[in-house]
């Protein structure tokens, strides 16, 4: 594996392997089966990168969102999966988006909040608008995390 690979501890390996094997058992498409087989091999080696990291991110995202990981592997298994997820490309993207939103919110520090509203944008998607004197921020919250919508001065 490359130096940029994500190393998995034993607990994370167990969760990732079991989840990949569960999905593999249900998948009929040969291309997806091959991709999952590659992922399982990488997990067994203890490190993922490239396509395997993307596949693991998708797999863990589904298991974490549905509660399956916690239900089957308990809180420790969920924490192990979350630690890996945050280091994978998809998890790093979510972290970067949260950092961007926090930087925008920092612009509100010391200002008097005049209005805060929440709007339903669509299924599983909301926006939060925070208005202060001279500044209005809109933050979008959806399954992809938090992102800065608009900034009005």
Kindly describe this structure.
With 153 residues, this protein is an alpha+beta fold. The chain folds into 2 domains: 82 residues, no CATH class; 51 residues, no CATH class. It is 58% helix and 25% strand. The strands form 2 sheets. A 4-stranded antiparallel β-sheet has the order 3-4-5-6, covered by helices on one side. The chain has a two-stranded antiparallel ribbon with strand order 1-2. A hairpin with a 2-residue loop joins strand 5 and strand 6. Helix 1 packs antiparallel against helix 2, helix 1 packs across helix 4 and helix 2 packs across helix 3. The mean pLDDT is 93.
Q: What secondary-structure arrangement, pairings included, does this model have?
A:
Elements: E1 6-7, H1 10-26, H2 30-45, E2 47-48, H3 50-66, H4 68-87, H5 89-106, E3 113-122, E4 125-132, E5 135-142, E6 145-152
Antiparallel strand pairs: 1-2, 3-4, 4-5, 5-6
Helix pairs in contact: 1-2, 1-4, 2-3, 3-4, 4-5
Percentage of residues in helical conformation: 55-70%
Overall spatial form:
elongated
> What is the count of β-strands?
6
- The proportion of residues in beta strands is 15-25%
Structural class: alpha+beta
């Amino acid at each position: 594996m490359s130096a940029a690979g994500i190393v998995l501890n034993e607990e994370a390996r167990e969760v990732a392997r079991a989840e990949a094997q569960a999905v593999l058992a249900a998948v009929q498409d040969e291309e997806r089966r091959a991709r999952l087989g590659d992922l399982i091999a990488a997990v067994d080696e203890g490190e993922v990168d490239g396509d395997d990291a993307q596949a693991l991110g998708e797999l863990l995202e589904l298991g974490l969102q549905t509660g399956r990981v916690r239900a089957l592997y308990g809180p420790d298994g969920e924490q192990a999966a979350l630690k890996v997820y945050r280091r994978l490309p998809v998890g790093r993207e979510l972290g970067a988006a949260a950092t961007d939103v926090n930087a925008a919110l920092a612009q509100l520090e010391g200002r008097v909040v005049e209005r805060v509203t929440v709007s339903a944008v669509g299924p599983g998607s909301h926006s939060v608008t925070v208005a202060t004197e001279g500044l209005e921020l809109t933050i979008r919250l959806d399954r992809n995390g938090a992102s800065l919508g608009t900034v009005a001065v």
